## 1
Amino acid sequence: MSDTRYFLDVSPLRDYAWTGIPTVTARIARYLLNTRPEATVFYYGPEVVLPQFVAMAIDSAPGGYLRAFIEAGTAIAGSLDNALRGDFTSVGIFPNIKPVHRVFDFELVVMHDLSAILLPEMHTPEAAIEHSEAHVRDVATSDLVCCVSEATRQDVLQYLRVPPERVFVSHLGCDVAEETDEFALTSPVSPYVVVLGTIEPRKNLGLVADFIRCRPQICDELAFLFVGRRGWGAQFEDLFADIMRLPQCRERVLFTDYVTEGVKRRLLRHARFAIYPSLFEGFGLPVVECMAQGCPIITSRSSSLVELALDEDFYFDPLSLADFSRAFGLMHSMTMQEERRRQLSHDVTRRASAFSWDAFVERIIEKISERVGSLSATKISMPAQNLRQRRRVVA
């Protein structure tokens, strides 16, 4: 075969509120658009998506309207079956769970975490079963598995029994704020802390609720701003109903629901500090997002979060209210001092610079190139008729 073409599954971009996996998908798409536009094919199910619509969705993030254009046929360039015909090596890149298997000559899946297997109680029963089965199928039908942290890599090796040579780590990235960035946003309450993340059991927001219940007077000093989309399980109103009836906490414990990237960055830049009490993470993108905006943060000493290289004092046991109180008190005391807050901001921004979106995708492309280049001549020169049979896409 004469060249390599990259086929990116953009189905995660169907969401109207981009967080996590849609963000990762958009970053891979942007990199390919910038570096390999002629060698990249975007697809959604059995259909190829016009690259200009993917670009518009990314530029207008969250670009969930992309789904409407696809469903209307406006963004469709043709069938994936037809796009796979030709003299080239097809490389399928799956940013999340694979919707198809062994359609491409070479396949790579991004593995974010095995929480469905390790912590099934943190998912709905249906989701835990579905995702667990998908993980097993995905690694069995992939030539490479990209893990977003060393913690996830170790879990994949231990629980899915994937040969080590097929598994590698590429940390996710972030957009580090420039020193000259200015945000013209009036804070709704000041000072405040941000608790970033989807409302779901794994995010462990009950720990913050218990802390406020024990110290309701803290609301006289700081407001609590919960920023994130609604997930499943007990929602914000359930977790904090009694707290919001307390005189000190009324109007001081707030939930924004989903906000755009621009608003989120502004809120982080103005926050005194952030809290991320998650029980388990595959990488911890919200933590790095806080760091990238110069927002000091305390977070759980758990799973991949220890790879983000915060000062040890700013980690806490997510199952211990006492340890959370210690980390909170330390950060609160330090950030009350303007100069110390500025130093902490500079430090976390510097640390965030180690996480680059370009570096994340470049490592994926590098690993693909290494493996594709080592394919045997027999596999590369597979007769076109047999290749088309292998590439048959079932709608």
Note: Residues 31 and 109 are 17 Å apart (CA to CA).
## 2
Amino acid sequence: MPSDPQNHARFIGEVIKLVTGTSFIVIGLVALVVAGIRRRAAGVLAVFWLGVWSAIYGIQSVSDCSFLVALLPHGMQVCVSYLHALVTYLVLVAGLLTFRELCVGRLRQFTTLLALTALLIAVFSIGRFVLTGEEYWLLGPNNFVAAVGLLVLLIFFLVPSLGRKYTLISNRRVMLAGAIIFGLEALFTNIVRPLGYQIYAIWGDLGFFVLILSLGYVAMQQVYAGERRLQSIENELAIARQLQFAILPTTTPHVRSLRIAAVYEPMTAVAGDFYEYLPVNDYRAGFLVADVSGHGVPAALIASMIKVAAQSVAACAADPSELLRRLGNILSGQLGDQFVSAAYLWIDSETRIALYSAAGHPPLLCWRAADHSLARIESNGPLFGTPCAPDFPVREIPFASGDRFLLYTDGLSEPENAAGESFGDHRVKQVLCDNASRPAAELSLLLLNAVRAWQPASIPQQDDITFIVIDAL
């Protein structure tokens, strides 16, 4: 331990740098761990950049400890000098990016500009240091950017009207206390140090520690508030999902000589696909499938409207063209900029005649047991929501025992594999042809499993999947 008072004071200062620097590194690492754990929460980027800022500040303090550096091998001492030059300039970049996450509007743009300016200064300064060994070449401009940034941020944090408009801070008192203490200390240091005055590092460390505490408190408040909002949204989506499933048929209609199976697999909590049965008597029923453009809540709301509209036009169940026309008229004023495709199949199991019409929907697939053939039946009018004339041509389809119908949305044929290839209509047909003897319920599971097997588990479901299998016995 040094014996003379000057060396003793210097040694104490070095120890303080080591302790405070290590503390800031630990604080930074903890913040980074918290940011990693809560990486999906709103506002977590502020915690992340706060951790980076604190760690860089701590590294700068530790690398200033000359007695510690002197204990290292020569090669490592050279590395420390490069590290010190790097963090001297990057500490400002990290600080500005931290504040950027707490700003909105023009203040966020201004802070972003300052951060980019500080980054450019860092790049040129570090390059100059590598070439010439001159570490503080652009320290003056760097300090000027820091002073300007602190001054502007302090003004916006101190003025309540500006703070409410341009910052995301909910607890202003805590943030103001930290910002004022740190800002005043940093402004004073950046002004008087270039004039040759000695400023003890402990005061800067204390100011930075107060700021870190206040920023951490504010940032975590944002994270917790975001998590509460997210939890509230998830709860509401769960209720919406329950309500959406409640509007779907709970059982299949009992129509003589028909066996029916349906599959409904939403991509998200709520979906834009919809299907409905319109049974009339023991021999006759209608089958409606619809697909709203887009996904999520907006599409789900329109799907719910289709439920009400379908029930209101049930009197036209035996006339597919009229049913779709009326359905389109009801929805036309409610869709906004969204579109709906729909397909409707009317089956009379007594006369063995089916009627089919659609509005911009994928074709109906019909398996013929007599000659083991699969037919694509298209009878498309315009999508609901387009300005086209509502003309929905009808196809009459005689059928016999053993025949099968498949109504589906494009979510069945469009899933892609790892190579970007769609499952495609031809694979849907292949599954139907290979399992012609399977009952409707079993075929529906095989078809769904084939789509899932085609799509890698690492790729999320890309669209809602809905289809109805109808077998004539």
Note: The first strand starts at residue 258 and ends at 265.
## 3
Amino acid sequence: MEKKMKRKIKINETGKNRSILFICLPSTLDVFKESKISVAVPLIPLISLAQLSAVAKKQGYKPYVLDLSVKKKESVKERITNAIKGINPEYCGITFTTPLSKEGDSVAAFVKKIDKSVKTIAGGAHATIMPKEALASRNFDLVVIGEGENTLKELLSGKDIRKIDGIGFRTKNGKGKIVINKPRELIKNLDDLPMPDYSVFDIHSYHTPRLNCRKNPVAAMETSRGCPFGCIYCNKKIFGRFFRYKSPKRVVDEMEHILSYGFKEIHIWDDGFSTDLKRAKDVCREILRRKLKITWNIYNGIRANRIDRELLELLKKSGCYRISIGVESGNQKILDRIHKSTTIEEIKKAFKLANEVGIETIAFCMIGLPDETEETMQQTIDLMLEIRPTIPKLSILMPLPGTPIFDEWDKKGIITSKFWPNYVFHLPQKVYNHPTLDWETINKYYKLFYRKTMLNPGFLFRRVIRDIRTGELFWDAYYFIKTLKWGW
């Protein structure tokens, strides 16, 4: 059940409640539909909304979250209507990625239809990249560009929007020209952020498939922001290329804080948890020092050249059972072309160490990269067979706006469409023509990757042994059957 939304909180001079409603869009997980990995996609509370809710509370506002990705009996329109009428919010914030930008605009328009006095705010990656586009339809009153915490803080404090860095708006009550204020400086000390507020979520409405967790419910967590490396398929417009991190004490304080809400497992969603290798080890040591019993998983990736045996052993001792490593390609020239700044030998060493220590691994791979050939795609498959990850995972390159590869291919005329709803992972052929491969070949190797890596006798034998040890045999069989409709 969604949390009850009480009408009377505090009334401001506009007659609105001092409240803010954050909306998570209904199609948030649809970027993975029609792909094998759709059976493993986690449904978890958005950490960004937990963080922004904490900021709103400190400014004397009552935050609410309407997560439309959690399916209910009522229609989406009914749920939005009930929320707006029940809360009477002053602001409504909607965050979205590129493929959800049209849906975000439609939801904002519907909010305005219910109550045109609600101030709608666009945020997230796509709004940061294209703030003028978000404001052009007039369904959004404001756009938050980049990190949102300090911008929201100033907005809710009543500061003149013309003097708030990192914000866009329209003049003359929304009927004039679009104004984009100067960029906001990045938050220097992440320890200064308030603890995320997960009280705005009904955490038991969320579920992560057992392929991706050991215990439910699962919470996402960030311990750092930014990545100093320059992979051409990554967007660095929000957190930048400067690595900022929370201290080990703050990280473990936050873990304890998250567990106090009733979460049973924590997934780290950093761009690079171990970018500072010493800090990563100190986080583990702090968990061990406090004797904190925690099940955790580094879900969003570690660089192969930022791993050593000591870190892996500390991770395992502190309750981390799995790490994800960005491999991308089995060909060194491709890795160099995408500015990955890792080598095939570093990748092999990282997986060898993880297998020896007993940490599970996910290998993130990609095909359809620049200069890709059938030979290089086969080399990626061959590398998976050699390094033996617990789960090999493949996607087809999606040149999202705001990334160097989008800019490069757009200038060359390779991008064929800027209809953002088609920028869906695993179905990118609708938006660009690959310069060296036809789509029939790319799709053939997409299926071949999973068939060769997950249906070979060695993988199946290791998986069955692992499943007997962990009690996951039933779940693996269940999820395998669910993938059959996508073909092997």
Note: Residues 439-454 form the longest helix (16 residues).
## 4
Amino acid sequence: MTSSRYLIARIAQAFGFLRQAQRMGDAATEMRLLREAEAYLGAMIWEKVEKIEDLSVEYWNLRKLIKDQKGVRIRLAACQDKISMAHNERAEFINSTPVISQELLDQRKQLLVELEQLSQERDRIVMHAREVRRAHVGLKMKLEVLASESGEEPETKEEVAKAKVRLVELREKFAELKQERIRIGHLIEQGDAKVDAVDRKIDQEKQNRRLQASQAFEIFGEGNKELAVLRAEAGVIDTQMRQLYAEIGRYVSRNSKQNPACALAAAEYRGLVDVMRALRRSVSLNHRLAGTDAERRVRPFA
């Protein structure tokens, strides 16, 4: 608001046109713009106010905060890299099948196939042994029947002799089948032991993967917590820096006419300083028109 518009508004007030709500809204908008301009000006010129004694606290606080800010950014970058690595490891554990585990699974499958073949072979031998035993029992019964008969015919004697020879062959065959069954039984026991050993390796591999995955999840969770803390710390530093920028911009813009050091610091932003001075005047005039105490809010013509 300019002085001429202020006079027109005062005349309008004399005729009952107060418009207090509009004046307060205009003042609030202009004050927001003024605060943004002060923060911007301070951010642009803070490095030039080292020699201004009244701003030494703000200047050296900013130096410290900027150093702290760089440290936090470095830690943020490291934390984000750690989270990214943990995320990639977690995705790899979830989406991939380890080569070692697949080899063990293939080995276990092959062992089970061999065990099935050995079991079938053992069943065949047992069935054959039962047939031999049945034949042996039949021949013994035949010999008992022939021995009970009183006849001494040559045919009978020859038949008995042949039966006895066949009994010896059947006993030898049964013994061979028994040894073969025992041998295959040992092979099956060894195969079962191999399967158990492979199962233990698979279980150990799964346990190792779960451990590695849990470590990746733990790193991911801890990294997110650390990231939240660092972001909060960075937010606090940014807020403190904006406040200091605003204080520097406010002081320099208000004292640029009276203080040569302030005028020198804001030389490149003289137009912005003029706009800020006009905003302060307008805020003060709007508050006067609204009937509020503008002197407590801003120094209107500084």
Note: The first helix runs from residue 3 to 14.
